[in-house]
Amino acid sequence: MKNIILTTLNARYSHTSLGLRYLIANLKELKEQAEILEFVINSSVQTIAEQILEKKPKIIGIAVYIWNAFDVGELVKVIKKVSPNTMVILGGPEVSYTPLRVNFDMADYIICGEGEVSFYNLCKELLEGNCTQSRVINSPKVDFEKIALPYDDYTDFDIKNRHIYVENARGCPFECEFCLSSIETKMRYLDIDIFLEQIEKLWIRGARSFKFIDRTFNIKISYAKAILNYFLAKKEDYFLHFEVIPDNFPEELRDLIKQFKEGCLQLEVGIQTLNLDVAKEIRRNLKIDKIKDNLRFLSQETHAHMHIDLIIGLPSESIESFGKNLNQLYTLSTGEIQVGILKKLSGTTLDRHDKIYGMVYNDSPPYDILQNDLISFSQMQEMKRFARFWDIVYNSGNFQKTTALLFEDGKVFENFYDLSKWLYKRSESTYKISLDRMAEFLFEYMSKNHDKELIANTILEDVMKVGGRKIPPFLKKIIPETYDFAQKDVSKANKRQQLRSN
């Protein structure tokens, strides 16, 4: 039995909540009375409530994010109906800024902002029975170097089975209007020696998969160098994920990144748009020449795997402008291009564009854009399906040679836009499409403009590049069963698929 249960619903089983571990690490004398229970979105809300209430807690703290907000709202209702005397405290980015667009009225307390200190103070008062705090607590920013660090609160099970999330800095120096990180433009850093001591403790315990949540890992070069040098000194395999800005890769940083082996380093590169006029509208600083040069460097001279972000629906950006961005990025990088849909998060200043550009958003999570003055609702729906099919076909890595053939004329956006509309009409779905089924769809579509035998052999090479797969039945009708397919780079393909799954 525990007096305090800290919980959240993660997006995937492999994820862990760094925020919950910060809270439990800072509970001081109350820590022995607390326990973390983590769940996954789309699980049964009643089952989650049952497992939490089995502990008979007096206090339940729930971390709320955009991906779990609706489920948390339902969870709070169930808990308060079944156990009305249990105190429910909400925190996290989804409840830290108004307006709240999910009904959390049944929650007893909401902590807005960084909760490491405020959560402890509230729990202490509640357990002592003399709480005088208001329902909504506006928590000030904590002293990053004085709070207890959370890394000892990763369990051995976490280390063996899940990603370990870490942070060396809070804040972001930029003011991009679609991002909550832009609210705090002053950077706060943890002393680099203290941080690396914590990483070393995790390493000794067996941690090998680290995801850094710092928004701009490469903004402070001295810290970035220290962290990269730390891992380069390790002889065992590991996986690192960093969010980086695309225009700050000086030679001293390049020299280090080039030393990482394949499969070790993944970079999330925030581009969002290459249109300077659009970037100016959303207060995003773009240095196009540096971006192009750095993307070429990362693609051609390193083994880093890249996730490059582009957004559909930004104020003043048309579909044609987005298409030009995609065509250009395809020529600059071999990495995944993450096609995202614009979301209007509470706390950002994005709403200042609503009247000017006719921006209309979904009122429910994930608060995605429905239409604007340049992109109609039906076109936005097409683009959302485009993004989904892009993930299945291009970003999955399952059809690298096939897509290269599809894009051989350089019209990446135009050709895939046509394909995505055809795929939706053909399949009437964007989900639950097997690899073999998608391969057959691609053959059917591309056979209109390409030699059938060429398409069949290209798709076969893609499908069979990972060991253990069988030739799709439809291809056996086209390619003789005696076809001798030499599996090339199977180990490399397996590594690539494993990396993409992260």
Automatic annotation (TrEMBL):
The keyword Membrane does not apply. GO terms for cellular component: cytosol. It comes from the Bacteria. InterPro entries: BchE-like, Cobalamin-bd, Cobalamin-bd_sf, DUF4080, Elp3/MiaA/NifB-like_rSAM, Methyltransferase_Class_B, rSAM, rSAM_horseshoe. Keywords: Iron, Iron-sulfur, Metal-binding, S-adenosyl-L-methionine. Its cofactor is [4Fe-4S] cluster. The keyword Acyltransferase does not apply. Residues 158-387 form the Radical SAM core domain. GO terms for molecular function: 4 iron, 4 sulfur cluster binding; catalytic activity; cobalamin binding; metal ion binding. Residues 2-133 form the B12-binding domain. This is Radical SAM domain/B12 binding domain-containing protein (DUF4080 domain). It comes from Arcobacter aquimarinus.
